[in-house]
């Protein structure tokens, strides 16, 4: 999974919905810790801006 920063509005819906809590905001940028990501797609389906994509 990856976050398309140009589309991300930092609503943090993805942070709230991630079952393993691998998404976080750091220095005004939302990031995914790829080593812990399950690629379940919960974040992508919850994003109202379609800012999360499968790599």
How would you characterize the overall build of this protein?
- The protein is an alpha+beta fold.
- The protein has one domain: Alpha-Beta Plaits (2-Layer Sandwich).
- Helices cover 18% and strands 22% of the residues.
- It has helices at residues 13-17, 42-46; strands at 2-3, 23-26, 29-32, 52-53.
- The strands form two sheets. A two-stranded antiparallel ribbon has the order 1-4. It has a two-stranded antiparallel ribbon with strand order 2-3.
- A hairpin with a 2-residue loop joins strand 2 (23-26) and strand 3.
- It is globular.
Q: Which features does this protein show?
A:
18% helix; 55 residues; single chain; Alpha-Beta Plaits; 4 strands; 2 helices; two-stranded antiparallel ribbon; alpha+beta; two-stranded antiparallel sheet; globular
- Side-by-side strand order of the widest sheet: 1-4
Helix content: 10-25%
What's the CATH class label? Alpha Beta
The domain count comes to 1
Per DSSP E runs of 2 or more residues, the count of β-strands stands at 4
Order of helices and strands: EHEEHE
From the N-terminal CA to the C-terminal CA, the straight-line distance is 5 Å
Largest sheet: 2 strands, antiparallel
Helices and strands, with pairings:
Layout (H helix, E strand, L loop, with lengths): L1 E2 L9 H5 L5 E4 L2 E4 L9 H5 L5 E2 L2
Antiparallel strand pairs: 1-4, 2-3
Give a concise summary.
The protein is an alpha+beta fold and 55 residues long. 18% of the residues lie in helices and 22% in strands. It has one domain: Alpha-Beta Plaits, CATH 3.30.70.
């Amino acid at each position: 999974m990856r976050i398309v920063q140009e589309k991300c509005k930092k609503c943090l819906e993805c942070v709230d919905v991630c079952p393993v809590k691998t998404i976080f905001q750091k220095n005004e940028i939302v990031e995914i810790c790829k080593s812990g990501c399950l690629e379940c797609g919960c974040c992508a389906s919850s994003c109202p801006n379609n800012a999360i994509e499968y790599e």
